[in-house]
Prior knowledge:
Blueprint: H1 21-31, E1 37-38, H2 53-62, H3 76-88, E2 99-102, H4 104-114, E3 122-127, H5 131-139, E4 143-148, H6 159-165, E5 170-176, H7 188-201, E6 204-208, E7 232-237, E8 250-255, H8 258-274, H9 280-283, H10 285-292, H11 296-300, H12 305-319, E9 333-334, E10 347-348, E11 351-352, H13 355-366, E12 368-369, E13 371-372, E14 384-387, H14 392-422
Parallel strand pairs: 1-12, 3-4, 3-5, 5-6, 6-7
Antiparallel strand pairs: 2-8, 7-8, 9-14, 10-11, 13-14
Amino acid sequence: MTAPIQPAQRIDQVHYDIRGPLARRAHALEQSGVEVLHLNIGNPSLFGIETPQVLRDAVARHLPQCDGYGPQLGIMPAREAIAAHAKRRGLADVTPAQVMIGNGVSELVDLALRSLLEPGDEVLVPAPDYPLWSASVILNNAQPVDYPCPAELGFEPDVEAIEALITPQTRALVVINPNNPTGAVYRRETLQRMADLAARHGLVLLADEIYDGICFDDTPMWPLGALTDGVCLSFGGLSKVHRACGLRVGWAVLSGERAATDQWWAAMEKLAALRLSANMPGQWAVPAALEADQSIQDLIRPGGRLHAARQTIIDAVSASEHLALVEPKGALYAFPAIPGLAHGQVVVDGAPYDDAAFARDLLERHHILVVPGSSFNLEPRCFFRATLLPEPDVLAKAFQAIDALLDERLGESAFTAHAQALS
């Protein structure tokens, strides 16, 4: 009998609960005929929000040019469009030579970290964070160090706390803005302080700006690379603003002093060459997306679907006795809190009832899938993330079910605690 194949131990430290056990349980329910509402993932096509036709047409028109491998950095028309887009965003000195296209931002995050980090290095990652970042740091044999972005600050980073976490091993500072999972959009003052902090300590800035065009109520989004003369690698792509997740096209734009970045960029390019090239058909959609597609505005302005969905959640939380919310200003998510769970004292059926237990309960009883806040490396365990993508009436019904479940569970818990105190 063949001995079991043991996976690498570092895999045990990696978590991606957005597609983890709860999602697998949801799939099993669906296989048995149960309809599940997926509030766990930012996948627009799942809710009938389609890729703009101008992108589809561009891919179809260039298919005859997609039979072979492309350049490891990406095709020149796409890189030129990205460089021009970066200049419009304030990164004045960017050229196509400083643009790399990948199979989604996820691949580029790995390439960037793999070419930067040595064993024992540290990377400052926000808490809560999009777990790709902490996982990628671990998989590259380095250590993620969480820095606080507390609800009390509107989920903006605590810059003084960040500086206290810097050690001689710290190599980079990750900034996710607009933020996933919280929907925060950082003020210019906060971003400038982070940029200055990174420059002062010689840190690489890693700016995850995949939601840069999704900001509500005229909230300004300040690209981090435009606020610093230091080294900044800014990430963007087609998945969110242009609703083209399936094309798997992301990009990284390097800014900062060339003499300081040349060796790192060469190392990234070497790794990009090892994987040959990014998806060719999807790259042809980039110029069309950045030069012609403004359709996201129809979704995020007042009266648009995403704006209405956001307002539906804001209203539902406002009417609830059990929920609280820092209103999301951007991205595709809301991050409500259940304050009654904050102190870890709720017990249901003899077991602690935290954010993960709530999410399991909600799936089993109401067939609604959300992501517990603890999946984003956050304490206390009293938050959950829900996407804004469903139709507003669907979200309204979902939050009615959430409130009904909390009415029942928190009421049961209070009764149990009272009875135990009397016994």
